[in-house]
Amino acid sequence: FYSEKMSKPKVYVTRAITTEAMNILEEFCEVSSWPEPDPVSRDVLLENVSGKDALFCLLTDRIDKEVLDKAGPNLKIIATMSVGYDHLDVNEIKKRNIKIGYTPDVLTDATAELTVALLLATSRRLLEANEEARNGGWKAWSPFWLCGPGLNGATVGIVGFGRIGQEVAKRLKPFNIKRLIYHNRSEKAKEAKEIGATRVNLEELLAESDFVIATCALTPETKEMFNDCAFKKMKPTAVFINTSRGGVVHQESLVRALTHKTIWGAGLDVMTPEPLPVDDPLFKLKNCVILPHIGSATIEARSTMAMLTAKNILAGLKGENMPAELKI
Ligand code: DGY
User: Fold this and answer.
1) Strands 54-57 and 30-33
2) Which of 17, 130, 214, 289 could covalently link to 306 via disulfide, CB atoms 3.0 to 4.6 Å apart?
3) What fold does the segment set 10-105+300-317 form as a domain?
4) Helix, strand, or coil (residue 22)
5) For residues 307 and 24, is the Cβ–Cβ distance under 8 A?
6) Is the CB of residue 296 below 6 angstroms from any atom belonging to ligand 1?
7) Mind listing the pLDDT tens digit for each residue in 90-116?
8) Is the CB of 108 under 6 A from ligand 1?
9) Atom 4 in ligand 1: residue holding the nearest Cα
10) What is the pLDDT of residues 25-71, one digit of tens each?
11) How does pLDDT run across 118-162, given as a tens digit for each residue?
């Protein structure tokens, strides 16, 4: 594809990544990068993408027509260091025959673990409890203080029964839950049988679940699916957990549902916008636990994601199959 005699393909990397991932890129490519831990600004991205053969990007970089036009006709590979790709204008990318790499599988366990952690932190009020212990609110052991709903005997509903949803389900089973139900576009019958989960429609899932967990991708179909109407269908004792994308929630509806106790509480790893402004109404609610999008943040997952993204770029540039190409 790129012979020895030709000049090295040019790659732009939009963030400081691991030395290992940089090294394998540099062996074969001419690499330039935004070397900071904070996101690259739009202007710097637009300037630097120009004339590149490949782009290593993150979910904080919106890759749309403007970026693609600026990149020009050399751009053949876009690899995102994420499993989510709602920040990519896939139609525009496909029109230009650009291949897309992403990072499924390698972050599944980390994200499933965090989902369980967030669920327990929310239902058992861990952050509030820690705060009380520190600020003198803990006067004595108290029978009904800081209580929350338990998982034992509960019905758990998972919206989006893909890789992450299934791993969340497996991890929750040993908590002795009564029923595991899921809502998913495709059937996933084999996986569901193995795990012991039942497919139901969304109405039923919302009405029956003590814990509603969103692990679905953000698509036009799932956008703001958790709205006033959905929250009203949920039990007043229900806990809502979101580790997918903030965009699946109509956030004003969620604020209303938490304020008026339409639902019991919520744990969010993702929201709109990110970062969530510190004066956002969600931060004022005690029944809402907020994390800064750390689902995949294990050391292992993040370094493997960086490596996989680099490998996707190298394979794509060499005209080989990418280890993880997004085929849509
Ligand atoms: C992803 O990969 O899409 C997650 O949101 C971050 O790891």
Assistant:
1) unpaired
2) 17
3) Rossmann fold (3.40.50)
4) helix
5) yes
6) yes
7) 999 999 999 999 999 999 999 999 999
8) no
9) 82
10) 999 999 999 999 999 999 999 999 999 999 999 999 999 999 999 99
11) 999 999 999 999 999 999 999 999 999 999 999 999 999 999 999
- Per-residue DSSP letter, 38: S
Closest residue by CA, ligand 1 atom 7:
296
Rounded to two decimals, what is the model's pTM? 0.96
Annotation marks residue 260 as catalytic:
no
CATH of 108-290, one of 3.40.50.450, 3.40.50.720, 3.30.70.3040, 3.40.190.10: 3.40.50.720
Contact (Cβ atoms closer than 8 angstroms) between residue 241 and residue 291: no
User: How much distance in Å is there from the Cα of 58 to the middle of ligand 1?
Assistant: 9
Give the integer Cα–Cα distance in Å for 139 and 265. Answer: 25
Neighbouring residues of 51: CB distance < 8 A, sequence distance ≥ 6: 10, 71, 72, 74
Pocket test for ligand 1, best of 15, 87, 106, 107 (most atoms within 8 A of CB): 107
Best mutation site among 59, 102, 167 for ligand 1 pocket (most ligand atoms within 8 Å of CB)? 59
Nearest CA to ligand 1 atom 3: 84
247 lines ligand 1 (CB under 6 A): no
ipTM score: 0.98
Reading the block at residue 314, the tokens are 């190298």
